[in-house]
Amino acid sequence: MSSSSLSWHIMKERMSAGRMLVIWPLLAIFILFSSWGLSDPKANLPAELVIDSAYDVMFASTAFIVLSATMGAVLISFDGVSRDRLSGVLEIKLSQPISRSIYARALLLGHWGAIFTPVLLLNIISLGIIWYRLDDLPSMEELFIHTLATGLLLLWYTMLQLLASSWAKDLGSSIAIGLGLWMIFTLLWLVLTTVTAGLLGVGVENLNSQEFVRIEAIIDLFSPNGVYHHLLELPLSDINRGVSPFVVSIAAILWSVIPLQLFIRRMERMIP
Amino acid sequence: MSASGIMEAILTLTDVSWRHKIRDFSTWKPWAKRDGPGIHSINLEIKSGIILGLIGPNGAGKSTLMRAICGLYDSAGFDKSSPSRRRSVGYMPEQVRWEGRISVRNSLQTIALMRNNEVDIDNLIRKVGLSSKSESFLDDLSQGMRQRLSLACALLGEPKILVMDEPLNGLDPLAQRAFCNLLKDLASKGVAIVISSHQVTDLESLVDRIALLHHGQLLIEGTLPNVRKKLDLSEDSGIVDMICSVTGIEPEDISLDLSNDDMIPFKQIGGEEE
Predict the structure, then answer these.
(1) Chain B within 8 Å of A96 (Cβ-Cβ)?
(2) CB contact under 8 A, A97 and B97
């Protein structure tokens, strides 16, 4: 059986959930307002940020996607498995003739679609904003890489959260694991990077030093947000942090495959 | 049923065993688990058109056996990896708490998609008496309505075997009567039904055969008169008397203490009692 119709159904269910009333405005404020603000030619930005093209605006505004859309993925998926497990509905679902690995993939695609669709729509609107403000549009290659990287970032967060949801025995633990991971990757990663660099003997008094940037680029490969930014940097010729596109691609593949396999394995072995 | 009138076995369980894993905490291995209670070497034939009642005290293994039949466990002698067998089984677990801002119809559609069945959802909703609630959110359903929805899920795809764990819980007396009538009707069409219920009066009037479980073992199976005969009980004795007889409890000594060693029957199996 193809999982596409089931994923589509799950996605529609998730998109009509009450929590979308919170997620939609959150995404709209972060994505649209950041595009509007960053595409203002008179905007006063930190010294190292130079915005002179549509892709530069999209690149800079991804900081707000990282803050809002990844949180949206956590909020949509935290009860993806645990709620059904607690209520007993999972017993009914897992007794159906569908294979558990197909069901796991359908769950993943359904939850991912529920967060990626609004982000994609808002990104399209923000393109209109950028065009209106800067009279410039990104190239097809830049657009493709931005969309692919955003899609992958949300997929990774959705997988991690569904995995947490399948491990947790209650909703509280599930959201605690999800939020904990989100905080580590989004808010605490720089602290972890600095500590690691310090332990490796790299001076941390100047975060723009070539040595620190190189260490940071390597440590970023172990974080979904870091790999996301590596992917987004691919079309930018003026940024080179010393990690080759090949290594970035491998990291992206590993971030996609390992959590997926863990989730499928977990669903196959789960006793409801 | 075959032309000769002998009921065909739809499913044969041979030496089906399953042990739950329970925590076995120790300082050096806090994650350690050990085998807990479960079911042990169950041999049972499920025949078309027969309503089989699973009976036994709490913790006897009725629900575990039902889950094993539905393919929820990789139990010895009966693994979960056969979609064709699972397609022939409809399962209604005990007390499902359907919840969320999803309509009854949508919930049924999800399960129908998982069965890959083209199903007349409206007809099914009518059959279980949920017509007026088909567009209601799950959060707004009473427990009785939730039971009906679980029943509708079990009936999806016209299964050959219906497995129902305490299906009468939460239903009002009229709904219970209608439910029993529906089961009899399905059985007359050749559907095999495996049912457990603590409402023994209803069960006695409903089942064709009973299977008595205790401590994970199938102690006795047969028609009610047959079981009475095997246990040397009088004709007016009921299910409670049968449970007392096989577990060794005196009817006047019945208490809620199920861990009493006196209740352990003919042979002990591993697990919590080890």
Answers:
(1) yes
(2) no
pLDDT (tens digit, 9 = 90+) per residue, A217-251?
Answer: 999 999 999 999 999 998 887 778 888 999 999 99
Which of B28-42, B73-87, B183-197 is predicted most confidently? B183-197
Between the CA of residue B253 and those of A3, A99, B244, B260, B263, what are the distances in Å? 55, 48, 10, 11, 11
CB-CB: which of B86, B98, B100 is closest to A96? B86
pLDDT tens-digit series, residues B22-33: 888 888 888 888
- Paired with B137 in beta bridges are B103
In chain A, the residue whose alpha carbon lies closest to the alpha carbon of B106 is A13
> Chain B partners of A2 at a C-beta cutoff of 8 Å?
none
| Domains along chain B with CATH numbers | 9-96+160-263 (3.40.50.300)
pTM attached to this predicted model: 0.88
Query: If you average pLDDT over residues B40-68, what whole number do you get?
Result: 91
C-alpha closest to that of B108 among A89, A1, A108: A89
Residue B273: pLDDT band with limits 50, 70, 90: very low
Cβ atoms of A145 and A152 closer than 8 Å = no
Distance between CA B61 and CA B217 in Å, rounded? 8
Contacts of A94 in chain B (CB under 8 A): 72
B79 vs A contacts (CB less than 8 Å): none
What ipTM does this complex have? 0.86
Name every chain B residue with its beta carbon within 8 A of the beta carbon of A89.
96, 98
d(C-alpha A103, C-alpha A85), whole Å: 14
Residue A262 pLDDT grade (very low, low, confident, very high; cuts 50, 70, 90): very high
What pLDDT is attached to residue B267? 47
DSSP B44-91: EEEETT-EEEEE-STTSSHHHHHHHHTT-S-BBTB-S--HHHHHTEEE
Size of interface A-B (CB pairs under 8 A): 77
Query: How many angstroms separate the CA atoms of A26 and A42, rounded?
Result: 25
Answer positive or negative: Cα dihedral of A156, A159, A164, A170: positive
Q: Mean pLDDT across the stretch A42-59?
A: 79
Is the pLDDT at B1 greater than 60, yes or no? no
DSSP alpha helix (H) spans, chain B: 62-69, 83-87, 104-115, 121-127, 143-155, 173-188, 200-206, 224-230, 239-247
Of B72, B93, B154, the CB nearest to A271: B72
State yes or no: pLDDT of B262 exceeds 60. no
- Closest-CA distance, B76 to chain A, in angstroms, reads 15
Residues contacting residue A188 through CB under 8 Å, at least 6 positions apart: none
On average, the pLDDT of chain B sits at 83
A81 interaction partners in chain B (CB closer than 8 Å): none
> How far is B180 from B53, CA to CA, in rounded Å?
13
- Count of H helices and E strands in chain B? 9, 8
